[in-house]
Structure formats: structure tokens, C-alpha cells
Amino acid sequence: MNTHEYGTVAAPVDLSAFGHDPWWLVIGKALAIFVFLVLTPLVAIYAERKVMARMQMRVGPNRVGPRGMLQSLADGIKLALKEGITPTGADKPIYLLAPVIAVVPAFMAFAVIPFGPQVSIFGTRSPLQLTDLPVGVLYILAVTSIGVYGIVLAGWSSGSTYPLLGALRSTAQVISYEVAMGLSFAAVFLYAGTMSTSGIVDAQQGAWYVFLLLPSFLIYVTAMVGETNRAPFDLPEAEGELVGGFHTEYSSLKFAMFMLAEYVNMVTVSALATTLFLGGWHAPFPFNLWDGANSGWWPVLWFVAKVWGFLFVFIWLRSTLPRLRYDQFMNLGWKVLIPAALVWVMVIATVRAFRNEGYNTWVVLLCVALVLGAALLIVLAGTYRGRRRTAALVTASGTLPFDAMSGGFPVPPLPGQKLPGQKLPGQNVPPQRRTDVSDTSEDSHA
């Protein structure tokens, strides 16, 4: 059995329960996972539309079925029966293959997600998990990374400008946020002593990692929203500037496959967050006070409830936050999440090294406080210098200097910048009236 305590050396995780299921049980597990991942998006789409309507004081779907419950099914049937249109300039083989590449890895990632402990299935003792690997979390990270190829190939093969721009955005987005996501995983690996999903769940019997590794949890939650192209990080699908993004030229069943891949990816990252930080299938408080809460089929209920908690957060964010500007999005990934994840991994590694050497808890806490304090001072000093530099430039020139062609291609000015020759607000107002607020408002009405 694995352990999360630093003072002991973690024993190898026992994976002997996997790989011995009869063929019919393997097929049954795979089919159950497939049905779960197909039905969950149907319910999630309906829940998203109703919850968003509630938050925005609207009604939402209320026509098809009782309270509109069959609206998602009706939309799916409509998409499947619509005429599929292929653009003339598209690279047809890749154009048709891209939705398949996007949706298949989303299903494959669930192969190593644990739903529960060992149970009896028609007289055969088997864990509620299709399989497990010594590097199960890395398998999920690798498989989900393949899904972005579907988005990139869809944008490139469409033969259109806007889908190509959406595909390029998605590439930069995945590269930026998977680095931070991988670093948040590293802290879990150091604490649990294993990369196996079942081993990580077993290591959280005493305390969930959301409490022990809170910075890693916050970094992962932010990165998983960026990974799934969901608001406020849905820049590859930005309707305001890219029409529909990478899937602009797709219709009918091919478009439905992209939508299915997005929602299945949401379920996958939510299940992974549950596995790594919320104890997996272990019962939450106060249900864990019951002796039978973590045995039998009850853990499936706890696991699904935690996954739906994350799905609600996805819906909540979409209903609440506006879409980020692209430079803000990149700055968040490269200048905030990745440095914070690096510092936190170093803190966890330092704590583990000290505990393995036999130092007491107070020495470890003092070292952690010194490291975090030094990192905070560096961040504050850099922010202060940057603001001082910006204030000096604004004071000297009246506005931030801006060269639209400095990067080799034209870019629009950011807030506080002006194009060469552009007049500042109030520049033509006579000096005696420029400081009069009431006159300025009268001029605007005039």
C-alpha cells in the first residue's frame, strides 16, 4: 500500500488486480465507460443551458420534453440528420479525419480513471477501473494532448482564414497551459510517491490533496479550463473575431463530434481533478463517517457527484466571466501559472528532502516560509519596477509609446497606447476649458 507521509519510503503500488479480467468483463467495462461519456454530455448541455438561464434570469429550454429535458437529444438528432457540407478548397481526407482525431483521445483517457474499489461483478472480483499503469497520469496527459491535433488539422484543412487562426490559437493555448498542468501533477507525484491513478487515490485515504497541495489544485483548475477551450479561455472559438473558430467550416455530424469532444474533455479533466485532489472515489465528509461508505458500489456515487461539481464550475465560469484578451491569456499562462507552479514544486521537493533526512516539522515549515517569502518579494519588486517604468513613460510622453510594426506585422494599440500622429482626448480643447469637467460634458452632448 502506498503512503503520502514524507517520513517513509513509498512502496511500489500493487497493480496485480489489473490485467486478469475475462474478456466479457473488459468489454462490459469499456462499454459502460462509453455510455457514461456519451450520456453525460447530453445531460451537461441541458444543465448548462438551464443553469445559465437561471443565472441570467431567463427560462432556458422548456419545449421539448418535460421542462425541456429532451432538448439535447433533439439537437443531437438534428445535427446527425442535417446535410453535411464540405468546402471546395478543403483537404478532404484530413478534413474528415480531424473530428475523429479530436473525439477518440477524449474517450481513451478514461481507461485509467478509477470509479471505485474492487467489487463483485457477476461473481468476479474486479476493480471499478478498466486498467491502470505505473504512469497512468502521464498516459492521460499524453492522450489528451493528441486531441489538439484534431483542432489544428481541422483549422488547417478547412482552407479558410478564420479556422486557421483558431487552430493556431489552440496550439499556443495547449502548449502554454499544459506546462503548468504538468508541473501541478509533479507536486502530486512527489507527495504520493506514484504516478498510478489507483495509487494516488489510495494515498488520499487520510487527507485529500486539495488541502495538502492547494496551490497545485488552483493551478490545475485554471489550466484545465484553458485546456478545454472553455470560457473565459475560449479564444480558439471566439465568435467576435473568428466567426466560430476552428470548426467554422464544419456542419452536421462532424460538428457534433467536435462538440462531443469538448464536453467529454470537460468530463475527463474533471475526473482527473477528482482523482488527484479530491480523493477519487472516497466518500466526502460526513458520509465518510459511515463504515460502508467506501465499499461496494457507493464510491461510484461519490465519484460522479464530484465530477458534476467541477462541471458546474465550468458552467458558472461561462455565465460569469467575459472572454480574456489574447495577450492577457498568454500572460496568465507564462508569467503567473508556470512560475507559481515551478516555485511550488521546488517547495514540495524541499519539504520532502528535509523530511527524508529526519528534520522536524518546525524546521521544514521555516524553510517553506523563507522560500515563499523570497518568491513573493521578487514578484512584488518586479511588479513595482514595471509600474514605475510605465508611469515614467506616461509622464514623459503623455501616453505609452507604440509602434504598430515593431514585431514585423501590424498590431492594434493596447489601452493607454496611441498610434503615431493620433491626437489625445481633449487635445483640441482650449486650455481655459480643458480643466472644466462640466464644459467637457457639455461638449460631448453638443
From TrEMBL:
Biased composition, class Basic and acidic residues, residue ranges = 433-446
In the record, biological process GO terms are: aerobic respiration
Q: Does the keyword Cytoplasm apply?
A: no
Chain positions covered by the region annotation Disordered: 412-446
Q: Which GO terms describe its molecular function?
A: NADH dehydrogenase activity; oxidoreductase activity, acting on NAD(P)H, quinone or similar compound as acceptor; quinone binding
Kindly state one GO CC term assigned in the UniProt record: plasma membrane
In this entry, which stretches build a coiled coil? Answer: none
Q: Which residues cross the membrane?
A: 23-47, 94-116, 136-156, 177-194, 206-225, 263-284, 296-317, 329-349, 361-381
Location(s), subcellular = Cell membrane; Membrane
How does the record say this protein sits in the membrane?
Multi-pass membrane protein
Catalyses which reaction(s): a quinone + NADH + 5 H(+)(in) = a quinol + NAD(+) + 4 H(+)(out)
Q: What is its EC number?
A: 7.1.1.-
Keywords from UniProt, A to Z, are: Cell membrane, Membrane, NAD, Oxidoreductase, Quinone, Translocase, Transmembrane, Transmembrane helix, Ubiquinone
- Keyword hit for Transmembrane: yes
Predominant subcellular localization, coarse grouping? membrane
- Similarity comment: Belongs to the complex I subunit 1 family.
Please describe the quaternary structure of this protein. NDH-1 is composed of 14 different subunits. Subunits NuoA, H, J, K, L, M, N constitute the membrane sector of the complex.
The UniProt function text for this chain reads: NDH-1 shuttles electrons from NADH, via FMN and iron-sulfur (Fe-S) centers, to quinones in the respiratory chain. The immediate electron acceptor for the enzyme in this species is believed to be ubiquinone. Couples the redox reaction to proton translocation (for every two electrons transferred, four hydrogen ions are translocated across the cytoplasmic membrane), and thus conserves the redox energy in a proton gradient. This subunit may bind ubiquinone.
Q: What is this protein called?
A: NADH-quinone oxidoreductase subunit H
Provide the species name.
Rhodococcus erythropolis (strain PR4 / NBRC 100887)
